[in-house]
Amino acid sequence: MTIYEVQAWLMRLGHNLMKKHIIHDPNTMWDKMEPKLGDVFESIAQLKFCVQNYAVTNGYGLYYEKCDSKRLVVRCGKWKQVNDCPYRLYAGWMFNEKSLQVNTLEENHKCSRKFKFGSMITPEWIG
Ligand SMILES: [Zn+2]
Hints:
- This protein has helices spanning 3-12, 44-58, 123-126; strands at residues 22-23, 39-41, 62-67, 71-76, 88-94, 99-106.
- The protein has 127 residues and is an alpha+beta fold.
- The site of zinc ion (ZN) has 6 residues, from loops.
């Protein structure tokens, strides 16, 4: 059973939860990728790919705190160091244990980014 079939099945049942599920589109441009609350991914590789592209595009130091048969937890900051960035992403397996859903997301960063697009252009540079 694919996640698309599961979605169709749940919609027929009038499953309310399903309304906020968005099946992640793997054809999204890599620099437009951003994991969102409720997103459903076909595989853990697909979710990791999305998270990595999101991190690279935005300059966040994301890492996988947990990745096991129950869930994937993404945090922001330096691995195993104290950091106060509240970014958290929890994704859990659903239905057939092939699909993952982002079921908790705190998407506001307080970290300083490693780099910023546009930060190269400062008044000093222009002047
Ligand atoms: Zn952060």
